[in-house]
Structure prediction request, 222 residues.
Amino acid sequence: MAKRKEIQQLLDEIESEYRFTRGMTGKAMLSPMVKQALSKIQRDKFVPHSVVDSAFANHPLPIGHGQTISQPYIVALMTDLLELTADDVVLEIGTGSGYQAAILSLLCRQVYTIEYVEELADSAKLRFERLGYGNIEIKSGNGFDGWPEHAPYDAIIVTAAATQVPGPLLEQLKIGGRMVIPVGRQYSHQELQLISKNQQGDIDIKDILSVVFVPFQGERNE
Ligand code: SAH
Prediction:
């Protein structure tokens, strides 16, 4: 099937899943900005050759080192929940393939992204250079600590499931900022949470949807 057709089919599937889950997520429609970003970023450029035939399927795919590129519907939903504006600075924990970071880069001013597995960070860095994403900065390390040098962030997105929200990430979220993070036990029940920090600095947490993510590595006891 031609790539354009495959992308259109993927967008249709994401939109139908939005309608199906609207009662839980509060999002009835894929926002036009996120839709445009999804149609521009070619997922086949982010997956290994062995699974390239499934690149536009609406499910997660293996990217090596036991990790996965998230399901496109989840990428869309998490991005939508951040309600980004063009001037925002975003922190992502869990670069993986770099696909989510690439989507974010079209919707904000600057993306900082941290990947735990050094080899994945190295290949994502090369990919960003080759594809020309000038507003994504990546480093390898433990995202539990965030990236204090560039804080505070308008938005933070975590793409691995933590047992609790890392304190440093809450601290590095701007007043008025939003964070999406899957929270729960490894390979067990996990809930996608939307966290916001209000003008008084208080934290509000909303459960959005049950999800399955790979585990957050290197959690520290605070
Ligand atoms: N956003 C990615 C999804 C990758 S899966 C994409 O679009 O492809 C989650 C990733 O989180 C994995 O690559 C895993 O290695 C990484 N990860 C897990 N714990 C981490 C941590 N503490 N800091 C940074 N990255 C982490």
